[in-house]
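Deliverable D5.2: sample structural annotation.
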Amino acid sequence: MATDYAIPRVPSVDRVAADERAARFKSRSIKTTAKAAGLHLIISMIDLTTLEGKDTPGKVRMLCRKARQPLKGSDCPTVGAVCVYPPMVPIAKEELKGTDINIAAVATYFPSGQATIAERVDEVRRTVDAGANEIDMVINRGSFLAGDYGRVFDEIAATAEACGKAHLKVILETGELQTYDNVRLASQMAIDAGAHFIKTSTGKIKPAATMPVTLVMLETIRDHFLKTGKMVGMKPAGGISSAKLALRYLAMVKETLGDAWLDPDWFRFGASSLLNDVLMQLEKQRTGRYHSDRYLSMS
């Protein structure tokens, strides 16, 4: 696969500075009404996810019902999306009918991406035709680490074209990219190739989302916006399971990109267990005591 794509010149990342700045966000404390508003915002930004080999239609139906009504009798918003494997998309479409909850699906032979580009593009088209309006793809990390950047760019661009009107989230699998400089380069390449969102991880590799890596990706988005005026979304995924940590991510987004990105159209959390912790924190604020997770459905 040939391309005339010019590999972007991106600034080298000062690892020490990135780590130190990210660490400062971990000391942030958000209280009272600001915390309540932040918790509601987090719910609206969650891609409620199940990506297991043992997923069943019944499990996906339950997940979709929780997405529609996270906590019975509350004023909680709906989540941003339900994210499933491609065969489960028709079930999610049926359960989410009449809502504005997005249907996201992992494609391109998630999580390894080890298939031909023709096979991966075909899976994307079939998944969109089945009802997905968001596609989470994985890049070919082997080609990237081998320096075959033109191939990586072409494959993302082909996937973006196959998505049609569906939005494309490009998963870098940052835990396999080895350096912050590689994360910065892969982020810019994904944006240049047509990504609507860039995403840290599949959640299958450790480390998954980390605050320093997310900061590097946010700064890439910021610099691209300052250069072109084009907004690109961000999705950290994997390992974000507490409301406290999610609030710190929101502080980092606000201070790096600004208020415009504090919106589910531009920022999402890839999560399965985060929602329950947020709901327990909201109950704590409402009643003054913690709500047991025994009263919450698993997600």
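Annotation notes: The chain has eleven helices and eight strands. Residues 211-228 form the longest helix (18 residues).
The annotation will be released with the project's public dataset once the embargo ends.
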